[in-house]
């Protein structure tokens, strides 16, 4: 991930009014704990929409942005506007409860059971996650263990789940060592990779 505007931000303004204006409660409030400054956190807790915090939060609030993107996507894919049955909406909600959100298996199963609209929405979410992971590709170049660089790049290109990425990187490159360049880069770029987006 880079410090400039991420793909998450490009989507915020596309869906923010469709969702938050009609349903009244800003789902991003539960993400405020991931802000890195007191000013941003305070603005987040008082906000009614993402627009209310843009002037208070830095452009590299990766953990916060990822969490809000996930919550907005959950509301868009699983909410009443999806026109899916209550059972499908409940199963969709459950899939988003995982730390990294719906897996590719979840997407396939929900698309099969609940229709193309929900499946397409979930698929778009996983595509954006993969794009975001690709923005962290530069961290792989800092790997010092033989074979780790190539494995790291392959993992980031093919996986969408933060947990699966972390597990596979642990096997390919060794356990998380905050002082090592590659892991230090990941932890600086994104809180989620070192255990942080909880409920994202």
Automatic annotation (TrEMBL):
Pfam families: CC4_RECK, RECK-like_N. GO terms for molecular function: metalloendopeptidase inhibitor activity. Residues 1-24 form the signal peptide. Residues 26-71 form the Reversion-inducing cysteine-rich with Kazal motifs N-terminal domain. Keywords: Signal. InterPro entries: CC4_RECK, RECK, RECK-like_N. Residues 135-187 form the Reversion-inducing cysteine-rich protein with Kazal CC4 domain. This is Domain of unknown function DB domain-containing protein.
